[in-house]
Amino acid sequence: MNTWIAIGLTVLGCYAVKLVGLLVPAHVIERPLVRRLAALLPVALLAALTAQQTFAQGQALMLDARAAGLGAAAVALVLRAPFLVVVGAAVLVTASVRALGG
């Protein structure tokens, strides 16, 4: 398939999804269940993306420096560190493990 055809179909699909979202009646959006799902869905998607990017190498499970960095970030979050400290801890641990050959 031509790359531009794929890009065009993706653009049309994204536009269609956006349009369908705008056409949903207000009374549906105001339901408590829908509001709760709308609040939790981005968090779940971000967590899934983080897990996939951290622990997957193609079709295989991979435990490497990325997992150590994610662990360091999790510890920093549990300790209620500021965001920049969380990111810095993850970067430092990941770089250290990679430098040590892990």
What does this entry look like structurally?
Helix content is 78%, strand content 4%. By secondary structure, the protein is mainly alpha-helical. It has a two-stranded antiparallel ribbon with strand order 1-2. α4 runs antiparallel to α5. The longest helix is centred in the middle third of the chain and has 24 residues. It starts with a helix and ends with a helix.
Q: How would you summarize this macromolecular structure in one to three sentences?
A:
The chain has 102 residues and is mainly alpha-helical.
How is this fold's topology laid out?
Layout lengths: L2 H21 L2 H4 L2 H24 E2 L2 E2 L3 H14 L4 H17 L3
Antiparallel strand pairs: 1-2
Helix pairs in contact: 4-5
